[in-house]
Amino acid sequence: MFNEKNSTDINGPNHVAIIMDGNGRYAKSLGLPRVKGHEQGMETVRRIVVAANQLNIKYLTLYAFSTENWSRPQSEVSFLMKLPGIFMNKFLPELMRENVKVETIGEFDELPLHTKKAVSYAVNKTKNNTGLTLIFALNYGGRNEIVRAVKNIAKDVERGTIESSNITDETFSTYLYTKDYPDPELLIRTSGEYRISNFLLWQISYSELYFTDTYWPELSVEEFNSIIESYCKRDRRFGGLKEERHDEN
Ligand code: IPE
Ligand code: IPE
Ligand code: MG
């Protein structure tokens, strides 16, 4: 949610969101099948989680599967649905050591049962951890999230639990998957694409955007740290003026 707390932050970001893109092209560049890129991408998730924890970032939201990704070949979709299970199997002990709390956003119910089971297990196992909250956007679409919020608001208006005249930005935010998280201060997209691809449409209204040509499987901790450093140098104005200019005129 955009609020005073966000606008006064001068240190590192609290919440970083990442569109992890370029797995397929990375694999292709090595003459490997696309799924190898997704596999390698998991290793990047692991190192960026550790790096984010070290930088004291509190929330890391990773776009893992969009509502549009169902249109990919069935074999790739089915591999992508196995990835959460593979990831948790391999890295859950490390996530526990890192004190990471796993959560998800998106249409969870529509995922295959084995995916839901693997993810729920990790969510449950890590629920009392107090370090970084690692949020996987799984079967997530920004428009879908907004339409879902509108439907639920309409229901609550019909029931009389809220009045339409009282609906504010804040009310709306509480109907989103992200209701428990602050808005991301920084959105990163890898692989040289300059688009949002239906990610966090509401939440990024004032996020700083950073695009890098690096494919997700090749994103290093050094580059991630330098992205965070460059964020820290940005001048976030939220429609206002820079502090020192308040006295002018
Ligand atoms: C991102 O990599 C991972 C997902 C969308 C699941 P891609 O699979 O989109 O890789 P490119 O963009 O084709 O290289
Ligand atoms: C966005 O990447 C979705 C994820 C990273 C999960 P895509 O590769 O699906 O996006 P487009 O097709 O390039 O817009
Ligand atoms: Mg892509």
Automatic annotation (TrEMBL):
SUPFAM superfamilies reported for this sequence: Undecaprenyl diphosphate synthase
Source taxon at top rank: Bacteria
Record InterPro entries: UPP_synth-like, UPP_synth-like_CS, UPP_synth-like_sf
Residues given in the record as substrate binding sites: 22-25, 34, 38, 66-68, 70, 72, 189, 195-197
EC number: 2.5.1.-
Gene3D superfamilies in the cross-refs: Decaprenyl diphosphate synthase-like (3.40.1180.10)
CDD domains: Cis_IPPS
Any GO BP: polyprenol biosynthetic process
Record PROSITE patterns: UPP_SYNTHASE
Catalytic residue positions: 21, 69 (proton acceptor)
Function of the protein: Catalyzes the condensation of isopentenyl diphosphate (IPP) with allylic pyrophosphates generating different type of terpenoids.
HAMAP family: ISPT (MF_01139)
Name of protein: Isoprenyl transferase
Organism, as annotated: Nosocomiicoccus massiliensis
